[in-house]
């Protein structure tokens, strides 16, 4: 286990992402019993990376491996059996559940697709719904009878039916109310801690990721700019983008402090800036940042892709 | 002098299959010029319906009572035509989803200037000049060029800023912002919040921010009202309500959030959700609507409806026994349960 900022060595590596162009030298790994947060703002490529990790989209470059085997992009054919234990939870529990089928049938799919009988599916569905905190009687109901938070729990039960080793969850709680968010976040981290599942949690919300992730990778415009333990990234961020991200989160403490602004907009990912992709918005950018694309370097115990942080300039030309 | 907007004992009944049911029930608050007031609550708490009432955009068959006075005029009984003049001109709205607020096949310039020309009677060239200013105010790069562009050519954050520019075009005095930053990234959100704060300081704009995000509330609102099931749970100055919440619901909402302040605690605490979910329209429990989910509920909470009563100056609390502070400061006067 050589992932940057790795702190857990108690589980085997389940998922490895070495997406050359995207991650640029950073190997992002997810081990059993570990939650890795992938954080970034719209258009940074985190969802594409998540979808590529489970084979829903091809990676532009690099590779995704599950249990050491490459994740092949799914075409029109069936998903290969060896990928069955790599599963995904989607953002919107309103569109990810078929409204015309009962919750029991939806959850049982995971069992029957894995070769189980229908009867088996029905019994396991009831047990799985109870595991996510819903009554077994929910099997007979339809998705519309549930709130957003409950639906997301149904979607998670459906994922669990495939007996996953690794789950990629793309914004699993951002469509939910605060209280429902807490319930689903607790459920996911419980599954990881108790079930030894690996979880890649993709979210734009660093404050939520912080609460459940062991390690956090921060993405900006298609690149991972910082990877470290949650504690490092949240409390002592090093990359100027991570610092801006943390400073922009408003604190619900009644303090009346306006969050810090990050001027400018995310550039077009199809036409990224030269050099460091963050340099046009970066408060500490130097001349060299315009031309040199930074490689991730160890800074303060984690990997940071920033020329200035990796080797502070002696001259005061910033 | 009366504040710009004064809502008193507002009740909004919406038609359901089982007859009229209250979506907003006994809500009172003020918004003064240059002030940002926040209404917080989960989905279904009646916060959006409150904004719709102020705009006269309630569904057919809805009934209102109480009072909502804007600049001394009673909005609830204002003739349709006068309300229409007020809407857009004096009271404007920004909603959560900028892609539905903007017309996809009209250039941005047309959408910003049409309010200026219609409401302010500006000439085409004057409106254009003002539109450029306004787009610059909301920090759209290259405003001249942006006028000729279409909404689809901008990012979500820029579209929301354009939607705010459209809302501000007729120089309204009150802006209703319904989850204005919920769909946005935090760095973009920070820009919008700073913009709202600047507009209230520079233009004296009054803002009613409706959001479930207590962080957003804490950043910009001067005063906060927390709603639950159409009723006011607690309201008061931002620091009072968010730093020293008295209503168990407010406290529950805050506890359910990841706490940035606890960042130095290496052992992360699990988030504490409020058990259960809010009641749907027409199924509001008797007594205190929050009592089935409340950890502090006593038997009287199931029968006696708590009215908002002052606990300190400007701090209203609809939780008569004040269970969280029973041993603390003197509780508000309340009638003993029968």
Task: Report what the structure shows.
The complex is a heterodimer of chains A (318) and B (338). Chain A is α/β, with parallel strands linked by helices and 318 residues long. Chain A has one domain: Rossmann fold (3-Layer(aba) Sandwich). In chain A, 29% of the residues lie in helices and 17% in strands. Chain A is built from ten helices and twelve strands. Chain A has helices at 20-23, 46-53, 103-113, 118-131, 148-160, 178-195, 206-212, 230-235, 240-247, 307-310, and strands spanning 13-18, 28-31, 35-39, 63-66, 69-70, 86-89, 166-170, 198-203, 215-220, 223-229, 297-299, 302-304. Chain A has an eight-stranded mixed β-sheet, sandwiched between helices. The longest helix of chain A has 18 residues, at 178-195. Chain B has 338 residues and is α/β, with parallel strands linked by helices. Helix content of chain B is 31%, strand content 22%. In chain B, the strands form two sheets. In chain B, strands 6-7-8-3-9-10-12-11 form an eight-stranded mixed β-sheet, sandwiched between helices. A four-stranded antiparallel β-sheet of chain B has the order 2-1-4-5. In chain B, a hairpin with a 2-residue loop joins strand 11 and strand 12. Chain B starts with a strand and ends in a 21-residue tail after the last strand. The interface between A and B is large, with 49 and 52 residues.
């Amino acid at each position: 286990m050589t992932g940057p900022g790795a702190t857990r060595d108690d589980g085997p590596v389940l998922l490895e992402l070495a997406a050359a162009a995207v991650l640029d030298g950073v190997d992002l790994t997810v081990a059993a019993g570990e939650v890795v947060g992938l954080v970034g703002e719209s258009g940074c490529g985190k969802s594409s990376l998540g979808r590529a990790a489970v084979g829903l989209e091809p990676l532009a470059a690099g590779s995704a491996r599950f249990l050491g085997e490459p994740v092949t992009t799914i075409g029109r054919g069936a998903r290969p059996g060896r990928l069955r234990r790599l599963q995904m939870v989607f953002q919107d529990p309103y569109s990810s559940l078929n409204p015309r089928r009962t919750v029991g049938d939806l959850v049982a799919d995971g069992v029957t697709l894995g070769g189980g009988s229908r009867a088996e599916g029905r019994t396991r569905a009831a047990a799985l719904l109870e595991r996510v905190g819903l009554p077994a009687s929910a099997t007979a109901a339809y998705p519309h009878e549930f709130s957003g938070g409950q639906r997301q729990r149904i979607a998670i039960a459906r994922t669990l039916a495939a007996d996953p080793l690794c789950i990629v969850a793309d914004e699993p709680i951002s469509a939910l109310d605060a209280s429902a968010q807490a319930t689903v976040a607790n459920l996911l981290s419980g599954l990881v801690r108790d079930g030894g599942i690996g979880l890649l949690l993709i979210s734009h919300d660093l404050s939520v990721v912080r609460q459940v992730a062991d390690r956090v990778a921060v993405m900006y415009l298609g690149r991972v700019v910082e990877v470290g333990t949650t504690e490092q990234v949240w409390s002592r961020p090093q990359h100027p983008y991570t610092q801006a991200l943390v400073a922009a989160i408003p604190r619900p403490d009644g303090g009346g402090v306006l969050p810090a602004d990050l001027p400018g907009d995310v550039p077009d990912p199809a036409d990224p800036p030269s050099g460091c992709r963050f340099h046009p918005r970066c408060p500490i950018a130097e001349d060299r940042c315009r031309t040199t694309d930074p490689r991730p370097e160890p800074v303060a115990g984690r990997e940071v892709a920033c020329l200035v942080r990796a080797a502070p300039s002696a001259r005061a030309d910033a | 002098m009366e504040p710009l907007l004064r809502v008193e004992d507002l009740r909004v009944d919406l038609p359901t299959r089982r007859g009229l049911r209250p979506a907003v029930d006994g809500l009172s608050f003020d918004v003064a010029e240059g002030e940002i007031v926040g209404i917080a609550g989960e989905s279904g708490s009646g916060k959006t319906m409150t904004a719709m009432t102020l705009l006269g955009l309630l569904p057919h068959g809805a009934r209102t009572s109480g009072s909502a006075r804007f600049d001394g005029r009673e909005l609830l009984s204002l003739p349709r035509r006068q309300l229409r003049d007020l809407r857009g001109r004096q009271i404007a709205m920004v909603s959560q989803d900028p892609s539905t607020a903007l017309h996809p096949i009209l250039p941005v310039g047309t959408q910003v200037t049409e309010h200026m020309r219609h409401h302010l009677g500006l000439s085409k060239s004057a409106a254009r000049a003002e539109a450029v200013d306004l787009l610059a105010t909301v920090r759209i790069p290259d405003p001249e060029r942006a006028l000729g562009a279409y909404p689809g050519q901008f990012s979500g954050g820029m579209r929301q800023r354009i939607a705010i520019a459209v809302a501000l075009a007729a120089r309204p005095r009150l802006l209703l912002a319904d989850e204005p930053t919920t769909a946005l990234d935090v760095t973009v959100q920070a820009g919008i919040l700073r913009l709202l704060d600047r507009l209230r300081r520079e233009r004296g704009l009054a803002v009613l921010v409706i959001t479930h995000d207590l962080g957003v509330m804490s950043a910009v609102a001067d005063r906060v009202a927390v709603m639950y099931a159409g009723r006011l749970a607690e309201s008061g100055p931002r620091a009072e309500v968010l730093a020293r919440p008295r209503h168990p619901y407010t406290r529950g909402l805050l506890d359910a959030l990841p706490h940035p302040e606890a960042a130095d605690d290496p052992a992360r605490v699990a988030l504490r959700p409020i058990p259960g979910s809010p009641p749907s329209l027409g199924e509001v429990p008797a007594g205190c609507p929050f009592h089935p989910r409340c950890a502090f509920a006593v038997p009287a909470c199931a029968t006696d409806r708590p009215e908002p009563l002052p606990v300190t100056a400007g701090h209203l609390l609809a939780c008569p026994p004040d269970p969280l502070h029973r041993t603390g400061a003197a509780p508000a006067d309340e009638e003993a349960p029968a």
